[in-house]
Structure to design on (565 residues):
């Protein structure tokens, strides 16, 4: 692409162009183009590609490299850095085009790269090296696959995800909104969105009660001293909102629930007989995200997290970790999440005491236990060495939506350092004081991210138990209004979230509206139905169900809701 661009626009200066997931990009200075110019560049690429039979590698000195790129300050900057770090400087040439490049290419592009398995997708602005103090460059994105079929599948997926975009559907279904006066990244949940939240919290509470969790509540602000103790300050200060001064103290909005829970654990004495202690809270945290990085519900400044901390002894760790995994699997099944994976980040033994807490035995023991549980529960996982958190192994949970898009939902962590910083202890059977291990877990992630995921996963057509509106009652005309209101009252008294679609518009128009809003069930009440104290019953997912009595409908829905079918 860079070769084609410089042939077409001789003044354009190529800067950096890496491969990315599903394709590549390249940033250029002195290039002013629009999306409309991409076809021309693609055409030139196809023309060049025919003639490119190889990439020739040449190792060059810094002087030679600088001479070649003397008119390109960006390449010169890169060459200087390579020279400073004593790294090899290599050029690769194909056709007339030479680039500064580390290498890693197709052997014979003209043969290996199908002419129709790639495409240029967009043009965007990008700062040199991502720093907004630098000059803005022109970035061209491309998508590239091995075959034309794979490219087409990817494009179909992108089109489908556009239709399922949580920002678009969130608006159409009346779930959430943002307001300038409230501030960017701070979602306002509308009544229908609040129902989703309440249903998810109900689910979490029921599941966690069964699993022996206890619920706690914590304030949204805390003094600087606590975050210094937890280590969030000064290390994560730039992810937190700036502090407020109050009564001569600095207070911070909480960015993590953990330290608050640790204080609750510390508030009473614990013996080995009380362990594990499992403290749960749908806790709201506040994070400073750059305004340019905010994105719908996916990147926000306020998050409500399905949080809990488990304080246990080393002996209990494997069972506790297994139970946490089982909870994930239960949720995946419930939400029809068929593809998932755990990304298990372990420590790097060479960096003990520097990047990782200096506890070699504990690292080995917990990592072995985590690995063992993952293998036993047959959870697909990948192990990533040297990416653990400072204080223990980390497990990122990745799920794929119904259309195959990946989301990182939550991070689980094992922590064997912070308990000491907070002086958390329990009395062991021996009478000695011991430090508990801590598991941080959040299977449903945050409301914001999880609901964003669910909107895409279900394309807004939520299962009955989760649907903000579960059934719509439609009288055929004004004459049937009273019967419709009676049916509505009966459904509502059974705890079903039913709505009336009043006969002010034609039935056809109202039906279209019901389908657009993705209601799981609707009841049409006409002459025949009034006489039979029934409705013509239809399901979004199963189609027409015929004439059914109102009590029967009420029973069907209640059963399905209770079962979270
Ligand atoms: Zn935590």
């Amino acid at each position: 692409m860079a070769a084609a661009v410089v042939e077409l626009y001789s003044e354009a200066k190529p800067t950096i162009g890496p491969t990315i997931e599903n394709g590549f990009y390249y940033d250029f200075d002195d290039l002013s183009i629009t999306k409309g110019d991409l076809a021309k560049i693609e055409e030139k690429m196809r023309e060049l590609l025919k003639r490119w039979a190889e990439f020739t590698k040449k190792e060059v000195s810094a002087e030679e490299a600088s001479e070649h790129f003397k008119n390109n300050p960006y390449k010169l900057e890169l060459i200087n850095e390579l020279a400073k770090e004593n790294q090899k400087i290599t050029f690769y040439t194909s056709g007339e085009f030479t680039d500064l490049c580390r290498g890693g290419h197709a052997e014979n592009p003209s043969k290996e790269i199908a002419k129709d398995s790639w495409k240029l997708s967009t043009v965007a602005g990008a700062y040199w090296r991502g720093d907004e103090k630098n000059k803005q460059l022109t970035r061209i994105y491309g998508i590239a696959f091995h075959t034309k079929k794979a490219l087409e599948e990817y494009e179909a997926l992108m089109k489908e995800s556009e239709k399922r975009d949580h920002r678009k559907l969130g608006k159409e279904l009346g779930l959430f909104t943002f307001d300038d006066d409230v501030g960017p990244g701070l979602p306002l949940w509308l009544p229908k969105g609040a129902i989703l939240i309440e249903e998810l919290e109900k689910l979490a509470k029921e599941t966690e009660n069964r699993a022996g969790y206890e619920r706690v509540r914590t304030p949204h602000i805390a003094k600087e001293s606590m975050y210094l103790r937890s280590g969030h300050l000064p290390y994560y200060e730039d992810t937190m909102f700036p502090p407020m001064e109050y009564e001569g103290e600095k207070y911070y909005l909480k960015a993590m629930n953990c330290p608050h829970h640790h204080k609750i654990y510390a508030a009473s004495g614990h013996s080995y007989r009380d362990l594990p202690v499992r403290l749960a809270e749908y806790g709201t945290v506040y994070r400073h995200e750059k305004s340019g990085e905010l994105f719908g519900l996916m990147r926000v400044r306020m998050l409500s997290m399905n949080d809990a901390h488990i304080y246990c002894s080393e002996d209990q760790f494997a069972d506790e970790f297994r139970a946490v995994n089982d909870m994930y699997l239960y949720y995946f099944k419930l939400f029809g999440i068929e593809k998932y994976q755990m990304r298990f980040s372990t420590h790097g033994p060479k960096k003990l005491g520097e990047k990782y807490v200096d506890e070699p035995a504990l690292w080995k023991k917990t990592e072995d236990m985590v690995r063992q549980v993952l293998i036993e529960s047959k959870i697909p996982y990948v192990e990533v060495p040297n990416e653990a958190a400072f204080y223990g192994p980390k497990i990122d949970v990745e799920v794929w939506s119904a259309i195959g898009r990946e989301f990182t939902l939550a991070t689980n962590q094992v922590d064997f350092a912070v308990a000491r910083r907070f002086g958390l202890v329990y009395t062991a059977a021996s009478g000695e004081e011991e430090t508990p291990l801590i598991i941080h877990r959040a299977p449903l992630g945050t409301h914001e991210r999880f609901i964003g995921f669910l909107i895409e996963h279900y394309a807004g057509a939520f299962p009955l138990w989760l649907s903000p509106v579960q059934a719509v009652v439609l009288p055929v005309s004004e004459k049937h209004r009273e019967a419709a209101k009676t049916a509505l009252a009966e459904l509502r008294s059974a705890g079903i979230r039913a709505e009336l679609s009043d006969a002010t518009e034609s039935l056809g128009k109202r039906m279209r509206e019901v389908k657009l809003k993705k209601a799981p069930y609707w009841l049409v009440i006409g002459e025949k139905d009034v006489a039979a104290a029934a409705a013509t019953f239809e399901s979004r997912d199963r189609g027409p169900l015929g004439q059914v009595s109102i009590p029967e409908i009420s029973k069907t829905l209640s059963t399905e809701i209770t079962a979270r079918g």
In short: Residues 314-334 form the longest helix (21 residues). The domain at 171-214+256-458 is CATH 3.30.930.10 (BirA Bifunctional Protein; domain 2). The pocket of zinc ion is lined by residues 256, 258, 309, 440 (CB under 6 Å).
